[in-house]
Amino acid sequence: MTGFLSDLASGITPYVPGEQPADRQYIKLNTNENPYGPAPGVQKAIEAEISNLRLYPDPECSSLRRCIAEKYGVSTENVFVGNGSDEVLAFAFPAFFTGGAVLFPNITYSFYPVYADLFQTRYVEIPLRRDFSIDIRDYETDGTGLATPEVTAGEDGRTGGKIRGILIPNPNAPTGVCLGLDQIEKLAAGHSDKVVLIDEAYIDFGGESAAALTRRYENLLVVMTLSKSRSLAGLRVGFAIGSKVLIDGLNTVKNSFNSYTIDRLAMAGAEAAIRDEAYFRKTADMIVSTRERVADSLIKLGFDVVPSKANFLFISHPSIKAAELFKALRERGILVRYFNKPLIDDRLRVTIGTDGEMDVFLEAAGELARRQLR
């Protein structure tokens, strides 16, 4: 019975997270988690904070924001902290896009249209190029080749209006393709009347962050997470770097919802992870090295592999349907991500695990590929 639900809640199709099964032990290559643990100092920092749990956390996240600001060479007023980058992205919709429309790729993080629906925001999905790359020229005007920057209301009644923002994940997910910093700067410079939001969840695996550009472009907001390269998916800490006016907008939404989004343990662990630069770089480099080795091996096995700057690969095989490969790997105790969606239903996204885990994956993938050649 749905009679108790609002029309909004009844009409939303929620995001579906990656499978987290408990029926057996799997090699988990489906949720882009870091295969290596967090920095050694994280546990110590969390344990030291336990005695303070009777106290509310700092709603300003002051110490963590100073730490982030120091790392990225910005002022504390240019940093916003949220409960994972998902929350930061969610706050961005009512802060910047609602009442107008936002542009983002048609193949990308599937939470974006969910946020748009939740906050009743129109969106235009801009097609990727055939090689899965983003061409920033496709984001001119409203991104559809029309001469006017207006988007009409759809049959669903969602508000139309002026294009208020551009949302680009860099590297993109699930493709792993990355734009150069020069392209990000052209976007920000060429759309000074719009918020250009760059989602850098995977930037630490081969891309170059646009954080420094926020000092020159008031309309540029860069969102990052500690879930991937810092191995803190279980703590849920994300942050944004941008001009004071954009950070103030995020704070307005947050403080109209929940001023205490980050708990004491998360703040302590996050700061310890950020300060251990050597450990972060070592583990990120290990993942990059494994990714390149696995990509080369898959190509030799006949797979098509999209060049990636993330901690995952986007692959297909000319003789094996992706759904069948997904099922066969699962039966062998290996989880990967299959998106049963148009344009990408022939591909799998494979998270980079340890070298040992990836060797097991490659052995299984090779066995299945050779079976098709018999």
Shape: globular
Helical proportion, percent range: 25-40%
Summarize the main sheet: 8 strands, mixed
Q: Quote the distance from N terminus to C terminus.
A: 52 Å
CATH superfamily of the largest domain: Type I PLP-dependent aspartate aminotransferase-like (Major domain)
Low-confidence segments: 142-159
Radius of gyration, CA atoms, in whole angstroms: 21 Å
Assigned CATH class of the largest domain: Alpha Beta
Give the mean pLDDT: 92
- Give the SSE order as H and E letters: HEHHEHEHEEEHEEEHHHEEHEEEH
Tell me which CATH architecture of the largest domain applies here. Answer: 3-Layer(aba) Sandwich
Number of helices: 11
Description:
By secondary structure, the protein is an alpha/beta fold. It has 2 domains: 7-37 and 278-373, Aspartate Aminotransferase, domain 1 (Alpha-Beta Complex), CATH 3.90.1150; 40-276, Type I PLP-dependent aspartate aminotransferase-like (Major domain) (Aspartate Aminotransferase, domain 2), CATH 3.40.640. Helix content is 36%, strand content 16%. The protein contains 11 helices and 14 strands. It has helices spanning 7-11, 40-49, 62-72, 84-97, 111-118, 181-190, 244-254, 264-275, 277-300, 322-331, 355-373, and strands at residues 27-28, 79-82, 101-105, 122-126, 150-151, 161-169, 195-199, 220-225, 238-242, 304-306, 312-316, 334-335, 337-338, 348-351. Strands 2, 3, 4, 5, 6, 7, 8 and 9 form an 8-stranded mixed beta sheet that branches. Strands 10-11-14-13 form a 4-stranded antiparallel beta sheet, covered by helices on one side. The protein has a two-stranded parallel sheet with strand order 1-12. Strand 3 (101-105), helix 5 and strand 4 (122-126) form a beta-alpha-beta unit. Mean pLDDT is 92; it is low at 142-159.
